[in-house]
Amino acid sequence: MVSISKKEWFDKPVAAVPDELLELVGGRSFLAQALVRRGLIELPKARAFLDPDLYRPTPGVELPGMQEAVDRLQLTIANDELICVWGDFDVDGQTATSLLYSALLELGARVFYHIPVRSRESHGVNLDVLEQIFDPQKIDQDDPRWPKGSWPAPDLVLTCDTGVSSNEAVSFAREKGVDVLVTDHHDLPEVLPEAVAIVNPKLCPNNHPLRDLPGVGVAFKLIEALYEQLGVIADTSQYLDLVALGIVADVAEQKQDTRYLLQIGFGVLRKAQRTGLRTILEIADVDPAHLSEEHIGFVIGPRLNALGRLSDANLAVELLTTDDPARALTLGYELEKLNSQRQFLTSQVFQAALAQIEASPSLLEYPAIVLSHDAWPAGVIGIVAGKLAERFRQPAILIAITEGGLGRGSARSVEGIDISAAISTCKELLEGYGGHPMAAGLSVRAEIVDEFRIALSAAIMEMGPIPEGVLEIDATIELTSVDEGLVADIEKLAPFGQGNPPLILATQDVSTKSITKVGRDGDHLSLVVEDNAGSEKRLIWWGGGNSVGELPAGRYDIAYIVRSSTFRAKQDIQIEFVDFREVEGGEELPVDTKKIDIIDYRQAANPLAALVTLNEDGDIIVWGEAEACKKLAKMKVVAHRRDELAPTRNLVIWTTPPGSAELRQVLHKVSPETLYLFSDDPKFADLGAFMKRLSGLIKYAIHSYGGQLDLNQLAGLTGQRIPTVRAGIDWLTARGKISVMSDIGDSMTVVEGGTISKERSGDISDLLRDLLEETRAFRSYYSRVPCEFINGLYSEE
Fold first, then answer.
1. Up-side HSE of residue 391: CA atoms within 13 Å toward CB?
2. Nearest-CA neighbor of 791 among 530, 605, 513, 548?
3. How far apart are CA 555 and CA 567, in angstroms?
């Protein structure tokens, strides 16, 4: 074997497995081995790991400072004092804030919340903002977070997922006679703040069951203990959906109580009873019943994080606590817009970072990659730092320089390097810092970034060499063994994540049958591999879009993860590529790189004449929307909306698609061999024209079809995206033109008339303009984008 993998493969040693453990997992030896490797040799512990109903959770009062915090909150509620919940702008902070705010309101407390706005504040309790909160005259009374009417400064500040390093702010609060309770989970500083109580699992011994709780887990334990002490009979499990979100999004160690809370939390999440979460899932087309840690990590988490990174995370708390479906829908669309913006900015900054490295290769000679720029948005540099750390297998720090010359940095590390500890050795150079072993934040003056890079590198070198990458294989199996039964057995160990990694399987001696670039920009690869027996399986290689040339032309061994997947309401097996290593002496084999043949008429002098000629030749289907159907019918060309398309060899795209997602869905649905590109821009691009068209269509549906609406059909008839159509319906509802009687999937029933809400109407008008502008921008991009972009969207079958 000659390994060309970036990692050394290591087959995990076979351990002795008790018979009763093997019986517990239905005789699957590698599952029993997985339990043993996780230290679950005793049957009761293994049972409790697999079944949360058999786990005995640890009382929250075992956390140092918990009893003092509960006593002070009980006194606060009894005295009708005002509480300020101070959170953080990542998902852990958002969910912790939402949990404390909701639970305290349920207990009758007077409470408001504040999450720092990332563009103006940093992590922690900002002293300037705290001064404003202590002076109510400086607060915007129209802000929905603040109590209405005349009110005093808060009597108590309760932090969550932050505060353990906010010594100066806590001291200021004490001077003002305001008590502070700190609940946090970040690493402890040398000197703790002088708060009334500090509840932080890092104060527990290393092996304590609560040691790995994230911020929202600490908040939940606080509320659980408070309810118990007050003798309140209430179902605190209603908050465990928030806990599950925070655990996965914060990459917490899924051990003991943290895993237990996550398992129970998934049960609550899959019921999707929280209005805001249900809205996010509906917009993202995710079935709550099959929700997994992947959906949190790659669907829900990024959308919530986009608010904190690019806008105001306080809106996330509103979304997670509102019972108003219309408000949730408005906020849900805002998340979609910001998430698209985050993806775009992340791509830009990543390419800019690679350009810096290419221009100065010596930057890679340091143990840590440290890059800075004054045009980088601080909200996405952490994501890009993570991509760089993964690509180059060394810690990475990106620093966004502000106008005042202060750099705000985000660090991401690799296994074996505690980046937070390394940064702490450079504290004399920094304005502030904090974080975890794998991720941290810092502030540094622009003029000493080079000095910081040298000092940080020296600290990392003292920690020893960066460990060589090792890929531990749980089991080597045949491709034919990958079936529904195997996946069901493996998912008995789920949910997976930090501290409970997914099983890595391997198959020897396979070859590549076909390669297809997939994803919005062709960022990923879809591989079909074949073994010696002729069995084929399709794998997805996330982020492998630029790695086509790395795959061997001959035979190789492949490592992968298997999990269940729900795609377009269809339950399936998803096989995720992890790594490969080449088999020495294997002959080169042909590989089918699947592409669509594209013929480009977008710049044709007379596109309509060209289309008529194509139509006369026959054997084509034309995708045309909005007014295109009438226009083309006059030329005896039949146009089909997206909901009318069917598989065909030759597809004509006449109307410019409204977005990349809609284009990708059509390509997936039709699976053409040849694609003819035109770019006829439909009407209804501005708010007035779109709403006039949509209103007419809905009025017709009310009079002719009892108000039954098919959103896919309306999207095709207006040439817009479904979220835009939904926002348009919401706009008509807010203006009292219609009322929605039912809303199931992509079908609605509406009637004429309703209640006018001028405030909502204005908000939705702004949202609609944004959505229409996004479509206009994509259509402009589509008219000149290279054909390779279209092939990049061609998803797997």
1. 18
2. 548
3. 30
In the CATH hierarchy, which fold is given to the domain comprising 360-462?
Diaminopimelate Epimerase; Chain A, domain 1 (3.10.310)
Would you say 650 and 712 are in contact if contact means Cβ atoms under 8 Å apart?
no
| pLDDT for position 216 | 98
Q: What is the dihedral sign for C-alpha 346, 352, 358, 360?
A: negative
Enter the DSSP assignment of 658.
S
pLDDT at 777: 86
Question: Which residue's entry shows tokens 């139509």?
Answer: 615
Backbone angles phi, psi at 382, to 5 degrees: -65, -40
655 closest CA partner among 626, 676, 630, 634: 626
Contacts of 367 (CB under 8 A, 6+ apart): 394, 395, 457, 460, 461, 466
Domain 8-41+471-593 fold is OB fold (Dihydrolipoamide Acetyltransferase, E2P) (2.40.50)
Q: 60-336 belongs to which CATH class?
A: alpha beta
| pLDDT tens profile 224-235 | 999 999 998 888
Beta strand 110-114 with 82-86 is parallel
Q: What is the pLDDT of residues 52-64, one digit of tens each?
A: 999 999 999 999 9
> What is the structure's pLDDT at 616?
83
Give Cα separations from 437 to 316, 419, 428 (angstroms). 27, 5, 20
**CA separation for the pair 277, 329 (Å, rounded):** 10
Do residues 520 and 667 touch, judged by C-beta distance below 8 A? no
Q: For tokens 């509406």, what's the residue?
A: 750
| E strand or H helix that includes residue 541 | strand 536-541
Q: What is the DSSP string of 44-57?
A: HHHHHHH-GGG--P
| Token pair recorded at residue 565 | 């997947």
The answer to whether residues 701 and 681 touch, using CB atoms and an 8 Å cutoff, is no
According to DSSP, the residues that pair with 750 across neighbouring strands are 740
Helix boundaries (H) for 28-166: 29-37, 43-50, 66-78, 91-106, 127-133
Alpha-carbon span 316 to 307, nearest angstrom? 7
CB 63, CB 277: distance < 8 Å: no
CA distance 221 to 241: 14
Please report, to the nearest 10 degrees, the dihedral formed by the alpha carbons of residues 489, 494, 496, 498 taken in order: -120
Give the pLDDT means over successive 10-residue stretches in the chain (797 positions): 57 86 88 90 94 96 97 97 94 97 96 87 84 74 53 88 94 95 93 96 95 97 96 90 96 94 96 93 86 90 88 92 90 85 85 90 93 90 91 92 89 90 93 84 93 94 77 91 91 91 94 78 81 90 78 88 73 89 65 73 90 84 87 88 87 92 84 90 85 94 90 92 91 91 80 84 85 88 83 57
Domain boundaries, the chain: 8-41+471-593, 60-336, 360-462, 618-797
